[in-house]
Design brief:
4-stranded mixed sheet, Glutaredoxin, 201 residues
Length: 201
């Protein structure tokens, strides 16, 4: 019997998703678990949950900006909050689902490639020219990638992924589901580790 996968919901414009993307595979591998990467749009989940991003609240914004960088330093992950933040990332997400549904093992690699480009190098994923360059760096045909993110089929695929996430109770990112148990946030790593090591608690 194959071990149950860990569902990992992430948003390409989420600093905490970026940090989590740097540790989730290694943690899962230590416990013999695969990871199901699932690209979503936080805007859709926030709307469903009647929430706003912390950075949209003046009283939370300054703290959040500090915490993004502090959390990255704590995790040993390079991060600088991009000059343009947050950004719409539906195009990168549509390419992710295209790779995923082709059963292309590089879908999660594309996710990490984009997250690192945005949060470590400041590449603007919402800019078509920069995203095409990023696709070319990754080894994709940039014209094909652009055709994918403009294709109604992949627009609908991302919407269905958002709808499925909301139906599963996802309201933020990163969001993990382990053996049916939900864990929200990069800071839930110790709890996930204990769950995988010792079982439910």
């Amino acid at each position: 019997m194959n071990p149950a996968a860990i569902d990992f919901y992430f948003d390409f414009s989420s600093p905490y998703s970026y940090i989590a993307s740097e540790w989730i595979e290694a943690l899962a591998a230590r416990h013999g678990r695969p990871v199901n990467w699932k690209a979503i749009l936080l805007g859709a989940t926030f709307q469903a949950a009647e929430l706003k991003s912390p950075v949209e609240h003046p009283i939370k914004r300054e703290y959040s900006m500090r915490d993004f960088e502090r959390s990255a330093r704590f995790a040993g992950v390079p991060l600088r909050v991009p000059e343009k933040f947050p950004i719409p990332t539906q195009n990168a997400a549509r390419v992710f689902w295209w790779l995923h549904d082709k059963r292309d093992a590089t879908a999660s690699h594309w996710a990490r490639h984009c997250l690192r480009a945005y949060f470590a190098r400041g590449v603007d994923l919402s800019d078509a020219a920069q995203l095409k360059q990023l696709a070319a760096e990754f080894g994709l045909d940039y014209a094909e990638a652009e055709a994918v993110w403009n294709d109604p089929i992949w627009k609908a695929r991302l919407k269905s992924a958002n709808d499925a996430a909301i139906a599963a109770g996802v309201f933020g990112a990163p969001f993990f589901v382990v053996d049916g148990e939900p864990f929200w946030g990069n800071d839930r790593r110790p709890q996930i580790e204990q769950w995988l090591t010792k079982g439910p608690f």
